[in-house]
């Protein structure tokens, strides 16, 4: 195949060096008819260009300088017939339907399509199939239309996974990311999961941070936002998203399947934030430290000037947007609710983790509010338990005060119980110092702590230690706590220092007077 270098050599050899076509054929090995063709074409176009009076000869110049072309219009594909093309398009259509119905991992790759064609009896190679699929995709390729947004109009949300090392253990966290369409302001947080309570919590935090809510929120087809698909393009929102939208007053829009460009701001932001922040540091002593680092670095990114915003930072753009946002609402209650039954261990289960409730509620249904960081249990409209949220499988969070009634009947079960293993270190220290072997009395102390509080119990024990270090018991502690409770606060707040000083002065004066009288009496007796 002749290239542009060969064409240049032919023309220069003939016109500048005066070589004949036969001589050029001997030197280059190119057929003399081909050499004559390129020489004639060059001379014709050059003569037209020189004799042309039209100022615009761009196309003519391009013709002279273009690479040699071959006419392939009369060629036909021997192996790739119309029937094979129709079968390839059939398999591509199948792949599209699988993507639309959530079966993207079961699509046929190019090699699978080739094998399917071989099974149907077609004789064709892998390269031909690949080229055919590329040609079909090229014809179906779409163009994108750049969008322009007004202040306060739209913000986009997405999740992204990030792998961190917490206390030398590898863990996967879910990174929530918000991006404003107008100013590219980015916000987010780290969570253990993508569950409803995390979805609601990060929205409430975002709206509080920016000082209002955007008129439209854009989502992909995340499970926490889309309840189910209705047909190919319609989606039914979850109840949680509907309530959130109703409270803050924003509209929501879902992207089409596999159309990340429809929310391109946040799609790029997830990758951008993850790379720019956690490429610097991904090992932390605690989740709180990781979240603090994430927020600090995110603030740095938002403080940088942006070319598309005429040098203004995302913070500057957000300041301009705030007056266009919907009015700020009080923070939304982001809890996910459930109503499990308390089992025989007096615990309720939330996401495979156990949380204790008072042992009097065994067998009862407990109304539970699940937050990303805590669990709050209610029974008969009253709060009966509160726990720090546990993550992982089959973790137990036990409050020993919930088992006082049962432990009174079974005091021997205390020492090896899960409840005792999870008591606070200060309470375990009290047991080891003063209650070893007196489990029943310790159980009564636990009951007293649930009523009076740990601080008052510690103060009472400190008082007893000064009075009688060897006689510390629950009854004495209870007596001191009740006695302290009887003393009015008004009396406790009196400053006795001035009264004490005055009393000392009176006593000294009386002592002086008595001494004078004694001396006088002695003198009289002597006389």
Task: Report what the structure shows.
With 527 residues, the protein is of the alpha/beta class. The chain has helices at residues 4-15, 21-28, 32-51, 58-65, 82-100, 110-119, 126-140, 196-210, 239-248, 264-278, 287-302, 314-321, 404-409, 418-421, 425-435, 439-452, 454-467, 474-486, 489-492, 497-526; strands spanning 154-166, 169-180, 186-191, 216-219, 226-230, 234-237, 251-254, 283-284, 336-338, 347-350, 353-356, 367-370, 374-379, 382-388, 396-397. Helix 6 crosses helix 7 and helix 17 (454-467) crosses helix 18.
Summed up, what is this model?
This protein has 527 residues and is an alpha/beta fold.
Keywords:
527 residues; alpha/beta; six-stranded mixed β-sheet; four-stranded antiparallel β-sheet; disordered C terminus
Cα-based radius of gyration, to the nearest Å? 42 Å
Give the CA-CA distance, first to last residue. 156 Å
Overall shape: elongated
Helix residue percentage? 40-55%
Number of strands: 15
Low-confidence stretches: 522-527
Q: How can the largest sheet be summarized?
A: 6 strands, mixed
Average predicted local confidence, pLDDT: 84
**Per DSSP, what share of the residues sits in E-state strands of 2 or more residues?**
15-25%
Structural class: alpha/beta
- The number of helices is 20
Topology:
Layout: H1 4-15, H2 21-28, H3 32-51, H4 58-65, H5 82-100, H6 110-119, H7 126-140, E1 154-166, E2 169-180, E3 186-191, H8 196-210, E4 216-219, E5 226-230, E6 234-237, H9 239-248, E7 251-254, H10 264-278, E8 283-284, H11 287-302, H12 314-321, E9 336-338, E10 347-350, E11 353-356, E12 367-370, E13 374-379, E14 382-388, E15 396-397, H13 404-409, H14 418-421, H15 425-435, H16 439-452, H17 454-467, H18 474-486, H19 489-492, H20 497-526
Parallel strand pairs: 1-4, 1-8, 4-7, 11-15
Antiparallel strand pairs: 1-2, 2-3, 5-6, 9-12, 10-11, 12-13, 13-14
């Amino acid at each position: 195949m002749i290239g542009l270098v060969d064409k240049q050599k032919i023309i220069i050899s003939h016109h500048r060096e005066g070589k004949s076509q036969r001589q050029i054929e001997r030197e280059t090995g190119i057929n003399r008819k081909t050499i004559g063709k390129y020489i004639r074409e060059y001379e014709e176009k050059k003569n037209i260009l020189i004799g042309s009076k039209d100022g615009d000869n761009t196309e003519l110049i391009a013709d002279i300088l273009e690479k040699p072309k071959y006419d392939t219009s009369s060629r036909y594909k021997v192996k790739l017939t119309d029937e094979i093309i129709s079968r390839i398009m059939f398999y591509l259509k199948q792949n599209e339907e699988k993507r639309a119905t959530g079966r993207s991992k079961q699509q046929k790759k190019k090699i699978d399509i080739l094998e399917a064609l071989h099974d149907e009896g077609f004789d064709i190679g892998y390269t031909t199939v690949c080229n055919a699929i590329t040609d079909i995709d090229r014809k179906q390729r779409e163009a994108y239309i750049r969008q322009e947004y007004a202040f306060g109009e739209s913000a986009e949300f997405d999740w992204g996974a990030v792998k961190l090392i917490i206390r030398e253990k590898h863990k996967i966290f879910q990174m929530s990311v918000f991006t404003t369409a107008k100013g590219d302001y980015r916000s987010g947080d780290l969570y253990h999961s993508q569950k409803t309570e995390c979805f609601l919590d990060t929205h409430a935090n975002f709206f509080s941070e920016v000082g209002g809510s955007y008129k439209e929120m854009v989502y992909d087809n995340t499970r926490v936002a889309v309840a189910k698909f209705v047909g190919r393009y319609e989606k039914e929102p979850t109840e949680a998203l509907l309530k959130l939208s109703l409270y803050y007053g924003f509209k929501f829009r879902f992207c089409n399947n596999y159309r990340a460009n429809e929310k391109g701001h946040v799609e790029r932001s997830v990758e951008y934030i993850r790379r720019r922040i956690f490429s610097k540091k991904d090992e932390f002593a605690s989740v709180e430290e990781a979240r603090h680092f994430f927020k600090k670095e995110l603030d740095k990114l938002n403080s940088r000037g942006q070319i598309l915003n005429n040098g203004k930072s995302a913070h500057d753009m957000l300041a301009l947007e705030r007056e266009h946002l919907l009015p700020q609402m009080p923070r939304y209650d982001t809890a996910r609710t459930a109503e499990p039954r308390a089992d025989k261990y007096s615990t309720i289960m939330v996401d495979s983790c156990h949380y204790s409730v008072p042992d009097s509620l065994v067998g009862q249904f407990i109304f539970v509010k699940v937050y990303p960081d805590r669990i709050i249990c209610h029974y008969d409209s009253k709060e009966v338990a509160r726990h720090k949220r546990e993550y992982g499988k089959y973790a137990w969070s036990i409050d020993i005060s919930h088992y006082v009634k049962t432990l009174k009947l079974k005091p021997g079960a205390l020492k090896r119980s899960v409840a005792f293993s999870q008591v606070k270190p200060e309470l375990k220290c009290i047991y080891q110092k003063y209650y070893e072997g007196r489990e029943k009395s310790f159980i009564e102390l636990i009951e007293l702590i649930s009523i009076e509080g740990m601080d008052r119990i510690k103060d009472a024990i400190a008082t007893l230690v000064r009075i009688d270090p060897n006689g510390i018991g629950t009854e004495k502690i209870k007596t001191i706590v009740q006695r302290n409770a009887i003393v009015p606060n008004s009396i406790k707040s009196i400053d006795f220092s001035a009264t004490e000083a005055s009393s000392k002065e009176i006593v000294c004066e009386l002592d002086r007077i008595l001494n004078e009288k004694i001396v006088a009496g002695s003198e009289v007796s002597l006389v």
